[in-house]
Amino acid sequence: MDKVFFDAYNSCDLKKQESIYSDTIEFFHDKAGLINSKSEIIIGTKNNICGKVTRYIIPGSIEVYPIHNYGAVEIGFHRFYNNQEPDAESKPSKFIIIWKKENENWTITKVVSLH
């Protein structure tokens, strides 16, 4: 699901991203704070990410742990490259995503993004 979501992120498929985010999303960003509005996240992605930023996973960094009767937690490291500043340094950052499985569908309910 990480690949499915971030393929949509990197290609600016906002409809796919919106379908994966839970309606009760909580997005904790160490610099921006808490965002708990799916539409606000999608608008922010459209305005600040689409065509400007590309996300790459750090190979071998993903850990996934099942959460009984809920879904899973994913922990890993990734890099974001600013396509507008190709020479800018991209440092690895840690992330945590809480995935919920309902009726064979996976949604993101919580994100912790640390830079």
Automatic annotation (TrEMBL):
Describe the location of the DUF4440 domain by residue ranges: 4-108
Superkingdom in the source lineage: Bacteria
> Which Pfam family is an annotated match for this chain, by its short name?
DUF4440
Kindly provide the name given to this protein in its UniProt entry.
Answer: Nuclear transport factor 2 family protein
Query: What phylogenetic lineage does the species belong to?
Result: Bacteria, Pseudomonadati, Bacteroidota, Flavobacteriia, Flavobacteriales
